[in-house]
Amino acid sequence: MCRIRLLLGDLDSEIVAIRGREEGIGDGLAARIRISGKYLHDAALREGVELRWHATTLYNSIYRCDDNMLVNVHVYGAPASQNPVLHLRRVLTGRVFDHYLASFDRVWATGTPQTEET
User: Fold this and answer.
1) Upper half-sphere CA count for residue 109 (Cβ side, 13 Å)
2) CA of 27: how far to CAs of 54, 67, 70, 91, in Å?
3) Which residues contact 24 (CB under 8 A, 6 or more apart)?
4) CA distances from 68 to 7, 37, 43 (A)
5) Domain membership flag for residue 98
6) How far apart are CA 100 and CA 106, in angstroms?
7) Half-sphere exposure of 85 (CA within 13 A, CB side)
8) Mean pLDDT value across the chain
9) Residue 118: inside a domain
10) Per-residue pLDDT tens for 4-40?
11) Which of 38, 12, 97 lies closest to 63, judged by CA?
12) CA–CA separation, 117 vs 16, rounded Å?
């Protein structure tokens, strides 16, 4: 079975509002998260899929599949679409890969699990 972990910004957190202002898109960030949450809600109720909401400051967005990872690094004042994406592969020791994976795990540990209502 495949394990999927999804982590989205908490819409009620001040950090989402701050980041939206910093990126110059205001409530647009919260709107994007809200839409993503709606799209992912039913999938996240399936076995092997977990969705959590977090209220931490983001420095990157991480997309991982097995030993490949895409890291969209966030540059202050610019939306994600205007920032570089790093393609990392776990090879040999995988120090950089593992560094980003540990970051995701730390945020995951702070996240609030989705419920049927959220």
Assistant:
1) 6
2) 17, 34, 26, 40
3) 77, 79
4) 18, 24, 22
5) yes
6) 10
7) 12
8) 92
9) no
10) 999 999 999 999 999 999 988 999 999 999 999 999 9
11) 97
12) 20
Those residues whose C-beta lies under 8 Å from the C-beta of residue 71, and which sit 6 or more positions away, are 60, 61, 62, 63, 85, 86, 88, 100
Instruction: Please count the structural domains in the chain.
Output: 1
- Within-domain flag for 16: yes
pLDDT band for 93, please (50, 70, 90 cuts): confident
Domain containing residue 34: 4-113
The pTM (predicted TM-score) of the whole model is: 0.86
Nearest residue to 80 (alpha-carbon basis) of 24, 7, 13 = 24
Q: What are phi and psi of 22, to 5 degrees?
A: -65, -35
* Of the candidates 68, 38, 51, the residue with the CA atom closest to the CA atom of residue 4: 51
- Number of Cβ within 10 Å of residue 16's Cβ equals 22
Could you report the per-residue pLDDT of 32-49, keeping only the tens digit for each? Answer: 999 999 999 999 999 999
Question: If pLDDT is split at 50, 70 and 90, which confidence band does 109 have?
Answer: very high
Distance CA 3, CA 105 (A): 14
